[in-house]
Amino acid sequence: MTYHCLHVLASVKMVAGVSEGEVSTSVLCFILHPTDSKMKPKSFMKVPGSSISLKINGKEYLVDNSLDADTSLNDFIRDGAGLKGTKVMCREGGCGCCVVGVRTFNPHSNTYQPLRALSSCLVPIYACDKWDVVTVEGLGSCKTGYHAVQQRLADFNGTQCGYCSSGMVMNMYSLMSGGGEKLTMQKVEDSFDGNICRCTGYRPILDAFKSFAEDATPELQQKVADIEEAWKGMGMCPRTGEVCDCKDDEARGSSSGPEPYVHLVLSGSEWYRITDLSGLYNILDSHRSEKVRLVLGNTGVGVYKNDGPYVTYVDLSGIGDLFSYSLKARPMEFGAGLSLTKMIQLLDEASQDNAYSYAAVLAKHIRKIANVPVRNGGSWGGNMMMKHDHPEFPSDVFIALETAGASVKIGSSQGERTLTVKEFLKADMEQSVLLTLYLPPKSPDTAMRTFKVMPRSQNAHAYVNAGFAARIHPETFVVLAPPTFVFGGIRADFDHATQTESFVVNKSLADEGVLQAALNILGGEIQPDSQPADASPTYRRTLAQALFYKWVLGIVGEVAGGRMRSGGSGLERPLSSGKQSYTTDKDTYPISEPIPKVEARAQTSGEAQYVNDIPHFPEELQAAVVTTSVGNANIKNIDPTDALAMPGVVGFVDHRDVRGENTFCKLSPPFNLELEPIFTKNRSQYAGQPIGLILARTRREAEEAVNKVRVEYTDAKKPILSIRDALARPDETLMKHFDPLMPCESYDEVVGKAKYTLEGEIEFGSQHHFYLETQVCICVPVEDGLDIYPASQSIDDLQDVVAQTLGIPNNRINIRVRRLGGAFGGKISRANMPAAACAIAADKFNCPVRLVMNFNTNLEAVGKRLPYLIKYKVGFDEKGKLSSVGGTIYSDVGCSYNESMASFAAIMSQNCYYSPVWHWKPVSVLTNTPSNTWTRAPGTTEGIAIIEHIMEHIAEKLGKDPLAVREINFIHEGEKDMMGKPVGPNQLPVLIQQFKESSQFPQRQDDIKNFNQENRWRKRGLSVVPMKYPVGYPPFFKYGILVSVYHQDGTVAVEHGGIEMGQGINTKVAQVCARELGIPLWKIQVKPTTNLASANSSVTGGSMGSELCAHAAALACKELMGRLEPIRTKKGQLPWVDLIKTAFQENIDLTSKHFYTKMDELKGYDIWGLACAEVEVDILTGEKQVLRVDVMEDVGVSMSPLVDVGQVEGAFIMGMGYWLQEKMKYHPDTGKNLSNSTWEYKPPTTKDIPIDFRITFLQDAPNPHGVQRSKATAEPPLCMSVCSLFAVRHAVSAARNDAGNTQPYLLAGPATNDEIQAEALTHPKDFKLR
C-alpha cells in the first residue's frame, strides 16, 4: 500500500489561531486514500468514521483509514506531513531521535495537558486524534528566525553530526513549555535520560540547556552574553535583523477535544476510540475470538515488537475513569491510564502525608524506568500488563507496587474485582481490563527501600531489581511483622524470597548471626536462570544478596562498623560540569577562532538534510534486507514465495540478479584480501548475513515481508564466536599469521636475561559504531546511468563497487553526499554493501529504490570494532624500565580477513615508550560474526591499551606508582621508534608538569588512599595514561577541492572531497577559505560532495580528512588570489565584490581547483597527550561512576577550537563506553547478535559522562609541520580513555586487598558491573555488620 498524498485546501472556521469571527482560512489537509476495506463493522457499533485529525505546528491534517494500525506518528510526520526534521533510528523509544512535543486531551479533567515530550516512533497515528503536535520545524528556521533553544544548542557547540539535535531541541522545548516546577540545572540534567548522542560527549548539550535554568552558573550566563554579543549585526534572525530572541509566541490553539467515539475500518483491522468502560467491555466481548490490543502509551512495542498480529485496536485515552486519582482516599487510588510521569508527581505529593511517606521511595524508583519521553507516554497499567503477559519482564512498576503491598482492581462486563499485585500476574485477563491501583497507608516504623542495578546509569532494564519493606523496631531492629522481599531479573517464575521473609520475623537485623543466616537462606532461594543475553546467574544471585545487605545496612545505621556503613547507600551523582582551556591567535582569524560549526543552526532547526530526508521520488520502492538467522551453516534453499504474496510487495532480489560482480569489495587492492558477497549464496558465515532484498511500496510492508522469506539450512555447526573459540579448534585455516614486527631470533632467551619478567593475557571486546543514522542509500535510474545518494565515508570506493556490480562504466555513476548522521569508520567499506544491493534492485526494477536498514538489522549485519586477545611476555629492571616487550596479538576479524588491524595494533603498542626489543606476532582470527571493520581509532586504541596494561602490570609487580613506571620508560628525542624512525621532541614532561600542578594529583592520590582505607564497600581509583599518537599521510589519501566565486555578488561556493560527518570538516575548510580570500565567513557556502567535482577523492577517516581538505582549500584559494593580484596591482585594494566583478569582466577564471596528493609533501608529526580519570565503585553491585576526567592534548594551534574541543570530548566518551559498558553478546548456538537493540546495547548517556570533565589544549605549541600549525583531534583522545578502565581496576584492587587477595590481576574491557563485582571478589561471606 502506498501513501497517496493529496494536499487539499479546505475552508474551515477555526484552525490554528483563527477565531470564529475571522475570515475562513485554508488549512493543509493530508488525505490518505484507502486501498482495501473488507472489514465490516460489528452490528452493535455505530457507523464507522473515515478519518481522524491532528495538528502539527498549528496546521490541521486529516488521516483517513488507508493506513495500517501500527503506522506511527513518526511515519506520518516524516512521510505524510513531509517534516523531515524529526528523525528516526531505533523505533524502540531508546535513542531520542524522534522526540516531538505533544499536547493531548485529558478526559478526566476535560482539558488539554501542557506540552510534553514523546517518542513519536512508538505512538500509533490513529491514537493522535485531536492532538496538538510540535516538531522542530514549528520552533523556527533560517527563514522565520530561530527559537532560543535551537540557537543556544548551536552556539554552545552542542551539535556534531546533528542527527540527534532535533530530538534534543524538542525534549528541551517541551521541558520549558510544560509548566510546573521552576527550571533548574538539575531538572535539565535529569530530563535527558532518553536522548543519545554518539558524537559530542554530551557536555556542551547539557551546558547549552542548563543555561536556561534559573540557577545557571555565572559562567554559563556569561557564555550566553558573549555569544549574543558575537552574533550582533550578523543578521542571523531574518525576523528582526538582530540577535534572535524568538519565543513560542504563536498561540497554537487546540480544539475542544477528540471526538467522543471513533471507529475506523482499516485494511485488515479495526480501530476504536471509546470514552467509557461499558463501551470497552462491549468491544472486548464481541471480539472474543480475535486478538485485541488495548492502546494507551503503546511504549511496550519498543520491547516486545512481535506480540501481534492484532485484528482489533482499542484506544483507551478517552476513558476518563482511567485517568482519575484520589490522594485523599484510603487507600489512595490511581487510574490505570496515569502516565509514569504523572505517577511520579502524584507519589511525590502523596509522600507529604506521614502514612504515605514511603511514596517517595516509589517515585524515586519509577524515575529509573526507561526515559522521560517514554515515561510521559507509558502508563503504570501498561507496564503491569507487560509483566502480566511476559513474566520474564523485569518490571520496575511491579517491584515498586509489590513492595508497597498494593492491590489493583480489574473489570469486565461480568463485574469488578480486587486482587493483590501478585495475584494479578496470574489472573485471566481475557476480556478484562486493569482499572485502578490502591496504595495502602503504612505505619511509621516501616522501612522500605527499592533497588535497580542496570548496565548503565539510566534508560536501561535491570540486571536485578528488588524491593524490601518491613516494620522494624527503632531500637532493637527486630522485624515486627512478615516483611516483603521481592525481586526481578531472577527468573520468570520467581518474585518473592518467601523463606527469607519467614526467617527474619521477630529477629533483629542488627544481629550478625541473623544477617548471615538470612543471607544463606536467600542465596538458596535465589536460583537465577541462565539466558545468553543476561548477566551470569552467579552475578545475579550475589547481587540479590548484596541488595538485601544494603537494605540491612541502611536500617541499622550507626550500629554497623564504620568501614561497612557506606555499603548501605548507593552512588549519588551530583550535577555535572566541565571546563575547557585553550588559546587562540586573533591575528589569523577566522582560523583558530572559536566559532560554532557552520551548519549547526541548520541541524538544530531540522533543516539539515540527511539521506533519508531526501523527498521520495515518483514510483519509488522501499527495500528491506533479508538476512540469515543461523551462522556457520550451508544454505539449501531461499524461498520468497510467501513474502511475494503479501500486500504491497513488488519483488525480491538476490545473488541471481547481479549482472556484474556479487561483491561489495573493490576488485583491486590495497585493503581487500578476499571478496565479501553482497548477497550470500550457498553459505551463511554468520547470523545476520544479507541474502537478498524485499521490495515493496512502503517500508512497513517491506519489513513485514522479510520475515516471510523462508531459508533452509543444512550442515549447521556450532558457531565460532570468539578468539578463544577459534584457538580451541585445531583448524589453522581460521588464522592468518603476519610477520613479527622487529623479528628476534630467540625472544624467550632475550627476555630471560632481564632481572624481572612477567607474562599475562588481556582481552578487549567489540564495540558497535552506534551511528544514529543507520546504513542508508537511495538509487535512482537516470538517462546517463544511476544517481546514488549514499551514507558513505568513501564515495570513490563506492562508485567503483556499484559500477563493477552492475557491469557498467564508472562514469555512469553519479554520487552526492551532503552529510552523514555519524559514521566512526562504519561507513567506509560497510556502506558499499547497502549501496550495491540498492543499485541491483534499482537496476532490476528500473525505478528509484530506497534502502534504509532498520536498526536491529544494521547491528546484526554490519561489522564492528575488532576484539583482541593479547598474550605477552616482557622483561624489565628493578625500576620498571623495559628491556623487551613481545608476545602474540590476536585480533578477531569476523568472517573475513579484509580489515585486520593486528599489525597496526602491534605498531601502536609502543605508544610513548622505549624498549630495546619489541617482538609482536600479529595474528588475525576468523569467527562466525560479521566482518569487523574500522571503528574510531582502530588499532591505535587497542595498541596503546596493550602497552598501558603492561605498565600497570609492571607497577603492581614492583609495588610502584604506575605513573612513575610510565615516566621512567618515556622515549626521548632522537631515540628510534619501533619502525626505526627517530622521535622528535617529547611534549609529555611539559604536559605532566602542567597536569600535576593543575589537577592536585598528589593530594588526590592521598585522599583516595584514605577513602579506600575507611570504606569496605565503596572504593575509588585514579589513573593517568600518556599518549604519543603518530600522524602520517599515507599515499592513498587524496582529496580534490573546487572553489567557485560568483561574479554577481562575490559569494563563494566550495566543494571538497571529504565527507562531513560531524567532525567539522566543512567548518575548517570554510575558515581557511575565508582567511585566504580575506572575506567574511558568511560569504562562503560549503556544498555537498559529489564524484564529479571531487572525483577520485579517497576515504574520509583517520583524523586526516579535515587537515588535508583544509590544506587543499588553502592552495586553491592561493591560486585564485594569484590570478587576482594583477588587478589589485593595477587598481589598488578594491572591495571584494568590486574586485570579483572586475576580474570577471577581464575574463579571469573565478574557479580554482586543487587535488591533494603525497606530492604536496606534508610531513607527519606526533600528537602528545595525557588523560587522568578518577572513579568510584560500589563493590557490592559493581556500579561505578566517573568522578573526574582531565584530558590534556597537544593540538598545535587549533584551526577551530570549539570543533576540536568537541572532538576530544566526544572521542573520550565513546572510549569510556568501550572500556566500561558496551558489551556484545551472541547466542552460543545460532550466533545471533543478542545486543541488537537499544534494550540490550548500552552506549553512554548523559549521566555516564564524568561529573567533572576538563579539557586543556597545550599552549604555545604550534605544529611547524601541520596544516595551519594545527594537529588532528578526532581519534587520539579515544586512545587515552583506557585510563577510565585502569581507574576502575585500581578501585577493584583495593577491594581485592580487603578480601585478602593481593595477587596482580588485569581487568578486561568492557568492565561491566558483573565483571567488576566478580573481580572485586565480592562474596556474601563478607557481608558483615562489623
From TrEMBL:
GO CC terms: peroxisome
Positions contributing to Mo-molybdopterin binding: Q793, F824, R936, G1102
Pfam families, sorted: Ald_Xan_dh_C (PF01315), CO_deh_flav_C (PF03450), FAD_binding_5 (PF00941), Fer2 (PF00111), Fer2_2 (PF01799), MoCoBD_1 (PF02738), MoCoBD_2 (PF20256)
Catalytic residues (UniProt): E1275 (proton acceptor)
Note describing how the cofactor binds: Binds 1 Mo-molybdopterin (Mo-MPT) cofactor per subunit. Binds 2 [2Fe-2S] clusters.
Keyword terms of this UniProt record: 2Fe-2S, FAD, Flavoprotein, Iron, Iron-sulfur, Metal-binding, Molybdenum, NAD, Oxidoreductase, Peroxisome
Sequence positions that bind [2Fe-2S] cluster 1: C90, C95, C98, C121
Catalytic activity: indole-3-acetaldehyde + O2 + H2O = (indol-3-yl)acetate + H2O2 + H(+)
Family: Belongs to the xanthine dehydrogenase family.
Protein name as catalogued: Indole-3-acetaldehyde oxidase
